[in-house]
Structure formats: C-alpha cells, structure tokens
Amino acid sequence: MKLTALVPQRSLWDTVLPNLVMLGSAIAAFLGIIFLLFVLAERSPNKIQNILKYVVFLAPAAVLLLIGLIYPAIRTLIYSFMNDDSSKFIGFENYVWAFTIPEIRIVLRNTLIWTILVPVLATGTGLAIAYMTDRMKRAAVIKSLIFMPMAISFVGAGIIWRFVYTYEANLKRPEIGLLSSIWRAMEWEPRNWLLEAPLNTLLLIVVMVWIQTGFAMVVLSAAMKNIPDEIIEASLLDGTSNWRRFTKITIPMIRATIVVVLTTITIGTLKVFDIVRTMTGGNFKTNVIANEMYSQSFRQMNYGTGSALAIILFIAIIPIIIYNVRQLRLERTER
Amino acid sequence: MTIINSKRAKNAFSSPIASAAAVVIAILWTIPTFGLLVSSIRPEKSINTSGWWTFFTNPEVSLENYEKVLFQGTLIQPPMVQYFFNSLAITLPAVVFPITLAVFAAYALAWFDFKGRDFIFFTIFALQVVPLQLTLIPLLQLFAKGLSINGITIIPDLGITGTYIPIWIAHTIFGLPLAIFLLHNFLRQIPRELIEAAKVDGAGWFIMFRALILPLSIPAIASFAIFQFLWVWNDLLVGLTFGAGSKEVAPMTVRLAEMVGTRGGGWEVLTAGAFVSTVVPLIVFFALQRYFVRGLLAGSVKG
Amino acid sequence: MSIFRRRAIGLGVIVTASLLVLAGCSSESDSAGGGTENCEAYAEYAGNEGTTVEIYTTIISPEADLFVQSFQEFQDCTGITINWNGSQEFEAQISVRVEGGTAPDLAIFPQPGLLAKFAGNGLVPAPAKVADSVDANYTADWKNYGTGPDGVFYAAPLGANVKSFVWYSPKTFADNGWSIPTTWAELLALSDEVAAGGDIQPWCAGFGSGDATGWVGTDWMEDLMLRFSDAATYDAWVSHDIAFNDPKVQTVIDEAAKILKNPDYVGDVASIATTTFQEGGAGIVDGTCAMHRQASFIGGILAADYGATIVNPEDTDVEGGITTFYFPGVSADQTPALGGGEFVGAFSDRPEVQAVQHYLTTPDWNNKKAALGGWFSANLGLDTANVADPVNKVAVEILQNATTFRFDASDLMPAAVGAGSFWKEMTAWVAENKSSKAVLDAIEASWPAN
C-alpha cells in the first residue's frame, strides 16, 4: 500500500522518547518519595514512628484498595438488587433468576467443575514435575519449557489452541487441527472437539491447566529447594524409597506452600473468562460465571444480573477464605 | 563425608524413569506453542489450507509475517515496535509500584501488633476475587471526573485521562491483593527471634524494614516481580479501558487483539504478533529465574 | 538506603542504554502530501483549525485505512484532525467509556439496538444541519433507525450492507449445468439436484463468530421472515407485538431447517456452529460447496483470506471466481431485501464534531469513500458508477430500489434477545439439535418484561 506516503507519519523517536521520560521519571519520583520518607521517619522519635509506621506502611495500600476494590465491590452488591439500568430496586429477583434459569445452572455447574479440576490438576502436575526435576541436571531447560505458557497472553493462547482443537467436518477439505489429524491418522473417528459437552469443558480446562502448571511448578520447586539437605540425606541413608520420601517427607514439608498454590490457582480459575470467550464464546454448554457476568453486564447491558453473578462468585470463595483463616490461626498458636 | 553425601543427594533423583517422564511432559507442553512458532513463519495461504506439521514435508519459510507485524504501519496504526515501548512504559512502573506498596503492607500485617490486623488481612485476601470488569466503570469515573460526595470534592479531576497514570494506578490496585497475600505469607516465616533481637538492638520499625526485612525478602520480591510482570505485560482489559482510546499509551496486546481483523482472519500476522509479544516475558523469566532457587515463599517450609 | 541508591543507578543505565538503541531506530518523518486539493467545497466547515475529533468504532485495519484516506482532503482543508480509533471490544467498551466519563466524540454504532441504550444517556441529539442533510440524502427508514426510542434523531447512517444474497461460483455452476433458482421451491430443487450428484455439498454454512456466534442463524430467520410473512409481520416480530413463538415464526424456522438441518445439504449439521462464518464461505471458493447464503461483505473476506475473485455472473471461466444471486422468495416476483448498517452518534456538541458528523452524510464524501472500493452506503446521492465491485453494485441498486427493505431484526431487538438469546438459541438449534419449538420458546421467555 502506498497510502503511507500520503500523510505525515510521526517518527518512532517522537513517540518513544516521551514514553521513556515518563517511565523513568515516574519510577524515580516514586522511589524518591519513599526514600525521603524513610530518611525523615528514621530520624523521628519513637512515639512519632509508632504512628508514622501505619501511615507509611499500611495506609497507601489500604487507601488504594478502598477506592479501587472495596468501593466497586459495595457498588456491585447494591446493583445486584436492582434492575438492568440500576434505576429500580427489585430485591432478590436477580438471584432467583440466576438459580432458576437452566442455562445459568449449567454455568454454575461448569464453574464448579473448573474450580475443582484446574487447581488439582495444575498443582498435581506442577508438584510431580518439581519433584522429578528436583536435584536433576539441566532441569532448567525442562522447567523453562513448562513455564513458557505463563508467558503467553490469552490472545496468543487462543490462537495456539485453535491449531489443536479445530475440526473440519468435510473430508474433502484439509484438516488444520492437530488433534483431529492424529485421530484421522490413527483411523479413529475424529470428533468435533469443542462441540460435545462435557468433553469440550474438559478440553478448555486442559488449556487452563497448561497455563497454570508452570506457576505451580516454579513455586513448589522453590519450596522443595528449601528442604534442608540433612533431612534428604538422612532418608537416603535409611534407604527410603522415592515414593515414600515424596509422601512422607516432601509433601508434609511443603504443605503450607501447596495450600497457597491451590488457593491462588482456585481464585484465578474462578475469574477466568478469556479462554471460554475466545474458544467457544460460552456456547455448547461450556459457559462459566465470569464470562456470563461479562456478557450480562456489557453485551446485554444488564448490570443487575451481571452484578448478581459477581456476588455469587464472591460467595463461592468464602469457604476458601475460612480455610485460610483457620490455617493462619493454627500457625500463630504454634509459635 | 559431607561432600560425598551432598553429591549423593544431588543425584538422588536422576532416576532414568523420572527424567524421561519429565522430558515427555515438557515436550507435550511445548507442542502447541511450537505449532504457533512454525505457523508464524509460514505463508498466509498455507496456514489456512494445511496443518502446520506439513511444514516438515513441505517447508515454505517466509519471514514476511514478522516484517509485516514489526515494521509495517498503516495510516492509523503505527507499527508494532512502537506499541512495544508503550508496553514497556506501562509494565515497569506497574511492577515497581504494587510490589513496593505490597511489601510495606505485608510487613505491617505480618509484624505490627494492632487490633483488626487479621480482619484487614483477610479482607485483602478476599478482594482477590473481585472481578476486574466490575471495577472498570467506578475507577474510570474517578480518573475522569475526580471524586465528590454530596458536592464536596474529595479528589479533584486530575486531568490524567489518556496518560499512563490511570493504567499504572489500576494495575497497582489489581495487583495488590495477591502480592500482599503472598508476601505476607513469606514475611510471616521470618523467625520472631530475629525481629526481637533487632528490637533489643534499638532498631525502630523503619530501620528494621530497611536493614532486616528488605534484604531477606529480595528473592520473594524478585520472584513475585516476574509474575506481576507477566500479568501486566499480557493484560488486555486494563490497557484498553484506562488508555481511554489513546494510541500513544496502548500496550502491545491491544494492537494484537486488533490484528485479528475487523471480521477475523489474518492468522499469519497474528501468529507472528503473538510470538513477538512473548519474547520479552521469556527473557524476563530466564534472567530472573535464579531467584526462584530461594524464591517465592521459600520461607513457607516447616522445619 | 544502599538498596535505593543501587536501584536508581541501575535504572539510569537501563534508560540510557535504551535511548542509545532508539537513536538508531528513529526514522525520518514523511512530509505531507497534497496541496493540489480544491478547498472551496469545505468552506462551510471553516473555523475549526487545529481541533481533533475522535471517532470510536468497530472498524479497524485494513478497512479503516480506506476511511482515513477518504478524510484526507477534509482534514487538510478544514484543519480538523480525525483520530480514528477502532477496537474489537467496542460493544463492551463504549458503555464503559460513556459511564466512566471518557466518552469519545463520535461513535459508529454497528447496531441501532445499542444506539438506543445511549439515547438520552450521553448521546447528543443530531444538530439541525445534520438532520436536514439526512432528510435530503436518505430514505425516511434510514433516518428512523438512527432515532432513539424517545423520538429524538441522534445518529446519521454511515455504511450499509445487503444480506439477501446467495454466493456461488459461476464456474462451478456452469461446469455442472446448474441454473440460477428464482423461487424458494426451485432453490430446494437445485439443492436436491446438487446433492444427487454426490461430489459437491449443496450448502456451506458457518455460525461461528467468537462471542457473537449465532448471528448468521438470525440472518437466515430474518430473510425467510420477509419471504414467508410480510413486512408488517416482520415489524411486529421486531417490536414483540407478536410473540417469538408465534406460529408464523414457527413456519419460518421450519423452512430454514429444510436447508440448515438437512445433512444431505450441509453435511454435519452440528459443525455449522463451530465453523467460523469466514471459513463457512471458503467451500465455494475451492469448489467443495455449491451455495453459501451470506451478506455482501463476505466477498471481501473471501478475497483476502481464501484467494477468491469477485466476478460477474457471466464470468464462468474464472477459477476461484465468486458472485451472488438474489436469495429467492416464495414466488419470483417477491423481492424483499434484508440489510444492515452503521450509525454515527455524537457524545459532544463541539462545532468540529458536528462538522465531521455532517460531512459523513454528504454525497460528496459517500462517493469519495465508495470509489476507494469495497464499501457502499444507503446515501441516495451515491453514484453506482463509483462502486466498482459487481456484487456491491447490485447491492446498491437493491438498496435504492427495493420495494420492501428491512433492517436486520436482531440489531433492532433488545440486547438481551438481539445480542443474547437469539444468537445463543440459533447456535443450540444446530449444535445440540435443539427442536425448533424449544428454541422459539426459550427466546420468547428471555424477552425483557418491560
């Protein structure tokens, strides 16, 4: 296209330079302020420090969270009791809607499947790889390959998996999906992967597990490295088998980390919507709460039902919070 | 004796079966991405009409896709290289800000004794689940109009719409809950005796943070920084919404999503574009991965 | 403190290093072209020099480049810079931006139903000058689509498309001795004939379109509604004056099923739902399918992505050549047309914004844009001589002459139906073999109460 010649184009330099100046000055200013605060605070008397410590350490995060998350959360709670354009109070109608419409019940069921399978599979696989590569030579290569999906955006992941799951019904046209090609080569009947429930939900879960395993592996592997060598050596001298060592030593030693990983992945899974959105658009009984919430709020412009779904999501994590509260209390009393 | 033992410990798991299994899993994990890499160097028409594996029997290499993605701008779309720098300008502050504030808050929640500490911590923990989408409108209103309650201006209209500032603040807010949760878990593991000893030496809370807490938590900070970097770099929604339509501040993912084409298609540029955007996160991972050795949550081991 | 200092130094090194790299990269800026334009035509827009107008839209590159090119003269002469801002996330983002207080100056709405949401809620009524121009250059129907539920005229029509087309390859038809059907019965007879031949699948269809999957199915329903009922019934259907599960709608979906749910015609019915609408048309290019019902715009996509050439029906010797015939009615003399289009609404009343909104309604701009190719509008001043593509030329003639023209029904229905249950249920209709009755009942149940 010769169009480019018609208009003045700003050079790369013109737009990139202000970017870098902005970037540099923002970080410098931020760290500068903190530096000054520390200089002043350290020199002030203890009494003042005792007040100042809350102002400096806790207040900034607290204020940001108050404005950025707590206020919107309360707003959402209020909207969930109101009609589509938030002009009228309608009580629990949106919640009744969510639990009675058959499609939404499928959405809730799918979300449950996701939040059980993804954390367990991703953490399990991550744990297995971390253990297998622990103390192994050249583990870095293997770990990097498994970590790679974490570095790919959801847009990219959608493209990648399209080349795996896509299916061509017409035998005269070429097959560009990897999975169907393997099936055809094996002379098995290929299936329309993303269409058949509940197979399609499982295949979408595979994508999420593919992404999250890297996270689990890296964190768990770091925890394993921290198990004191003496304990491992003692078990080696005892002639303990690999499996026994894994279940009797490794897992109990890193239990706390496993809980953190499970919790983090569970919450991430509850919020996932990009995968479903790009691969099936929520059709074919694959929909999950986060995606339905997005389409209710912004596609169908119903803030009432969208907000109600968000609140249901919030309620769903309460058991996880309670479990973590107990863990924390337990640890505090142990010390 | 100890030398021999630790040598044995090092080799303890070099069992051939475990190694082979790990290699197989790694290969399985890589195949889909490898397909993308192969696709990205194939000509447009081949991508749509044959599987990427046919590349090996019928290799057609074309770097045109990359040339198109990186350097070809149109009347309204600057080339990808420019978005690359936008992404950089978004990501670095959006990593430094939340992590700094999160270490501060995690320190306070782990070691200050005050009423309601657990309540605040679990509120923050629970905030992880607040869906991003529902916070967009209230936050955007705040940036565009300021905040006033009953006509009293609390935060004025700062006139920052269309700059990086709203994007940075938004990423900071969204990154805080998880960062505080993870770093708190880490800082909590620091032995109480260390803290008490520092107190006995007369160190105030500020000196203690600088001299004791911060050096100890560098590996945890570095490894969380990797994750925050990946999340921010790959984010689409925040960049799209808080950039308020300004191309000067839009990150690479926004451009990538647009390349899908008005009505789909264009897989050849997408595959190349997806790869370009993955390079930087991979570099960051390789550069910082040694921190994982002592890394994130390394403290949370009983013993 | 040492940590802070070290970090600051490190940062300085990074910044300097990147600056050095960049110095090598920066390219020279091109100088502005033009200077030969006749600016007298733009005298009415004078007085807005140095202003910028943002247009927010779903239309992105490469189509967007042609828009920007068509504004060039306007920009040079008036001094108004048009910031064309396209995003795939427009539908969701527009409400976020309007509610969030960062509304664009102008927004191009792809659906009147979406436009209605912002009537009296951010949109600025079109100024008299724009309204007058629309009165002069468009039929009353088109002005109506840009009018909100409150009766106020907000948005001027922009581009248009015609949906009542069946795409086919003249070469495939000529090679097999098939002739163009002119009635619904003939269309089904031809489908049987093609199926009996056994080599070529009579129809290809694809409903897939990301989170909008299913819209192709709604188009089938709308086209057949205009044929098996009349325009008045169509309007009653849109406004919910007849129920969605009315027997008349049932007739329509049953007729659609004769093609879409017939495995002899379409092969694997369920996979229609997972085939994207772009891939759906690929079969007529490579000769694996005979017919494909789709709007005028699919031609450009098939040309760009699958190597098709858009030809005249007489060009029977072009390999990969495709063209259209009119989607037949029940009888040969019945020729209703279904179409769609975009509408430009303003969120600001600044004079330069009004100037751009007005300029887009002028025959001058519409001809200029059409001449760049691949595009047409419902502007009555549009000269078909400026429309090069043979299919688009036919489309413009249909728009300007059709006795019965109706706008895409799903775009006019409430979003919960038109961008929700209607899409979803049509998808389930093919994907899960859901019965026609169950589909219609489900959509009826989802219609908003007020």
* Number of domain units of chain B: 2
CATH architecture verdict of the largest domain in chain B = Orthogonal Bundle
Euclidean distance between termini CA atoms of chain B: 24 Å
Helix count, DSSP H or I runs of 4 or more residues of chain B = 14
Oligomer: heterotrimer
Into which percentage range does the β-strand content of chain C fall?
5-15%
The poorly predicted ranges of chain C are: 1-35
Describe the structure.
- The complex is a heterotrimer of chains A (335), B (303) and C (450).
- Chain A folds into two domains: 17-79; 93-334, Orthogonal Bundle (MetI-like fold), CATH 1.10.3720.
- Chain A has 335 residues and is an all-alpha fold.
- Chain A has 15 helices and no strands.
- In chain A, 74% of the residues lie in helices and 0% in strands.
- Chain B has two domains: 1-62, no CATH class; 73-294, MetI-like fold, CATH 1.10.3720.10.
- Chain B has a two-stranded antiparallel ribbon.
- In chain B, a hairpin with a 2-residue loop joins strand 1 (147-149) and strand 2.
- In chain B, helix 5 (80-111) runs antiparallel to helix 10 (205-234).
- The two termini of chain B are 24 Å apart.
- Chain C has two domains: 42-162 and 339-407, Periplasmic binding protein-like II (D-Maltodextrin-Binding Protein, domain 2, 3-Layer(aba) Sandwich); 165-337 and 410-446, 3-Layer(aba) Sandwich (D-Maltodextrin-Binding Protein, domain 2).
- Chain C is built from 21 helices and eleven strands.
- In chain C, strands 1, 2, 3, 4, 10 and 11 form a six-stranded mixed β-sheet that branches. In chain C, strands 6-7-5-9-8 form a five-stranded mixed β-sheet, sandwiched between helices.
- Chain C is globular and about 70 Å long.
- The N and C termini of chain C lie far apart (65 Å).
- The interface between A and B is large, with 132 and 138 residues.
